[in-house]
Write a structure and sequence with these properties.
Elements lengths: L1 H27 L8 H11 L1 H25 L5 H29 L5 H7 L2 H7 L5 H26 L7 H19 L18 H7 L2 H10 L15 H11 L16 E7 L18 H9 L1 E7 L5 H10 L13 H4 L5 H7 L3 E6 L8 H7 L4 E3 L17 H13 L5 E6 L22 H21 L8 E7 L15 H4 E2 L1 E4 L11 E7 L3 H8 L19 E6 L2 E6 L2 E6 L5 E5 L4 H21 L1
Parallel strand pairs: 1-5, 1-6, 2-9, 3-4, 3-5
Antiparallel strand pairs: 2-7, 2-8, 6-8, 10-11, 11-12, 12-13
Helix pairs in contact: 1-2, 1-3, 1-4, 1-7, 2-9, 3-4, 3-8, 4-7, 11-21, 12-18, 17-18
Length: 612
């Protein structure tokens, strides 16, 4: 019992240190908040508690190891071992705590990979620090120093208490090492804790306050994006590569307006894992999507659309931010980079739209919630907002329940609105409340059957949308987040068939002359923001990672774990960054050109990623 109380005191002392740092950050930037410092502190301390606890667990992990070794050898270690360790950790916490507020003041973000770049350039680092408010920093240090000194003295007292090395003591230490590991990783779920768990507000300053500074530094030290990309990704000097990239997308952007309405409502439905090869209409390979096929035939369909990546979170960035997926990494897990992304939500928010993201699962998974909050979304609806009876899937709520929630949300939202709905029933493990009788019972039946259920739910949803008063003023985009292997020949690995997805536009605001039209040119799902903004006569220069709808020489480039594929109307090229191996199909005259263009595109994308 004594050991247990000792452990709890250790956590409380570290938590107290982190809360002191949070208070320091709040008072350093008090003019940026709209509430009182006390209210901000209570909000951010609550939202950031899980990261605070995880950071405390990281600090205490070596302490528990020392305790375990003491029990094994039945001998108390020299007190200076733990004292030195605690002094080092507290000094690090203190140094990070006093520097983070000024980093935020200068750069608009806390410690990230940009700081690591400056560490190797001390001259530039000194110049950057030249405008710091040293008086304010000095005054706050005078406040923090005695606080940290008091906490450190208490910590020493707790650590140096005499303990009887009984079997109960050994059991407590062993069990608590396991508990500490759970605190460290953020729980027992599949996904470990990330900064996203502390992000809750569209205002970046509140999120920065909630994020534990010490945890944030550890994250960027062990996930330094500079180490992800070496010289193997570099083809040319950055300036020259950018010039050649600009030529790739410089083709005439002919006006392609979806609607005559100036401010139509926008509804984007993102279909989980809907490969084009599940559709009779888009590929002729399977007949899993009769509702999607009928809607596509009656409205505007894109017959050669390709996903930018192979994960949901990458698809969401491509669809809302028009930002391509990267090899090796995923930008969505870097909050500082996410904050600098353009986004359809950001633009429409500025135009007076009410933005909502609706998902039947856990929106914090893969940092989706934090992304949409930083993208100007007013509401993020996920499984926490569903009735318990509606959570009928292992992921959360199946698509029928999801669409009911989405319809209810839209009906209670003031126009104009932008709502993005993400389905999940066609995600593994494909446990849907439907069994299709006409689908072949082969090894792909579960996937095909889940898509059939998701397709039925989509059809019912669109039918219900058509009954609503807002439908006549609405543009609806239906697109998949990424493709999927579905057992069709060549739909495996990294071939273009794996990334081909359905995409269509419908809604009461869609021009009549576009209904029934098929776009046969190659496009990327990253085209969606510019397509919608072009329709509204709003600037879309921030979304220039792809060619236009009417460009017969257009292309789509997708990235997988460490390589890319590039598709044009005439050729396909796949490049593996690890082995530098290639695979080309199409016009031989395009072989060298498409390879060079693809590698330049990848370099410019990585350069842009690293700069954010």
């Amino acid at each position: 019992m004594k050991r247990l109380i000792q452990f709890l005191k250790l956590y409380l002392l570290f938590l107290a240190a982190f809360e002191a740092i949070r208070l320091y950050f709040i008072f350093y930037h008090y003019s940026l908040y709209s509430e009182s410092p006390l209210m901000v502190f209570l909000q951010t301390a609550f939202k950031g508690f899980r990261l605070d606890l995880s950071a405390s667990a990281y600090c205490l992990a070596p302490v528990f190891l020392v305790f375990f070794l003491e029990h094994i050898f039945r001998k108390k270690s020299n007190k200076w071992i733990l004292r030195t360790l605690m002094l080092f950790e507290f000094s690090l916490i203190f140094a990070i705590g006093i520097s983070d507020p000024e980093l935020y003041a200068q750069w608009g973000n806390k410690f990230n990979n940009q700081v690591l770049v400056y560490i190797s350039h001390p001259k530039e680092m000194a110049l950057s620090a030249g405008s710091a408010n040293w008086l304010k920093t000095f005054l706050f240090i005078l406040f923090l120093l005695p606080t940290f000194y008091f906490l450190l003295r208490k910590l020493f007292e707790v650590l140096e208490k005499k303990i009887d090395y009984s079997w109960q003591h050994g059991s407590t230490v062993f069990v608590w090492m396991g508990v500490n590991f759970l605190f460290l990783r953020g729980g027992v779920g599949v996904a470990t804790i990330s900064q996203a768990s502390a992000i809750y507000s569209p205002k970046q300053i509140y999120n920065a306050t909630a994020i534990n500074s010490f945890w944030n530094v550890l994250y960027y030290l062990f996930n330094d994006t500079r180490t992800l990309y070496g010289d193997d990704y570099k083809v040319l000097e950055s300036a020259e590569a950018k010039k050649l990239f600009d030529l790739q997308i410089k083709s005439p952007q002919d006006a392609f307006e979806l609607s005559n309405q100036a401010t139509p409502n926008v509804l984007v439905v993102v279909l989980e894992s809907f490969t084009a090869f599940a559709s009779q209409y888009y590929s002729g390979a399977n007949n899993c999507t009769p509702n999607l096929d009928q809607l596509s035939a009656q409205n505007l369909s894109f017959m050669k659309c390709y996903a930018s990546g192979d994960r949901t979170e990458k698809g969401l960035l491509a669809i809302n931010s028009g930002y391509p997926a990267q090899p090796v990494s995923s930008l969505i897990v870097f909050p500082d980079k996410v904050a600098k992304l353009p986004g359809l939500g950001k633009v429409l928010k500025h135009e007076g739209y009410h933005n909502t993201f609706v998902y039947g699962g856990d929106a914090e998974f893969a940092s989706m919630k934090s992304y949409f909050l930083m993208q100007g979304f007013d509401k993020v609806i996920d499984k926490e907002d569903f009735d318990l009876a509606s959570l009928n899937s292992k992921w959360g709520a199946h698509d029928a329940e999801l669409y009911n929630k989405a319809l209810s949300s839209i009906n209670s939202t003031q126009a104009p609105f932008y709502t993005l709905v993400l389905s999940l029933s066609s995600h593994e493990p494909f446990d849907v409340p439907l069994e299709s009788k006409d689908l072949k019972k082969d090894e792909w039946y579960d996937l095909k059957n889940s898509i059939r259920y998701a397709d039925k739910s989509l059809g019912d949803f669109i039918a219900n949308c058509k009954k609503q008063a807002w439908y006549k003023n609405t543009i609806i985009v239906v697109v998949a987040d990424h493709g999927h292997n579905i057992g069709v020949q060549e739909v495996y690995g990294f071939d273009k068939e794996k990334f081909q997805i359905p995409m269509l536009v419908l809604g009461g605001a869609l021009k009549d002359e576009l209904k029934g039209r098929k776009i046969q040119n190659v496009v990327s799902q990253t085209i969606i923001p510019s397509l919608i903004l072009q329709t509204m006569h709003l600037p879309y220069a921030d979304f220039q990672w792809q060619t236009g709808v009417l460009d017969s020489n257009g292309f789509a480039q997708y990235h997988y774990n460490n390589g890319f594929g590039r598709v044009s109307n005439y050729s396909e090229f796949i490049y593996d960054n690890n082995g530098l191996s290639t695979d080309f199909k199409g016009l031989k005259t395009e072989a060298v050109k498409i390879k060079n263009q693809g590698r330049v595109f990848q370099q410019v994308l990585i350069d842009d990623f690293l700069k954010k």
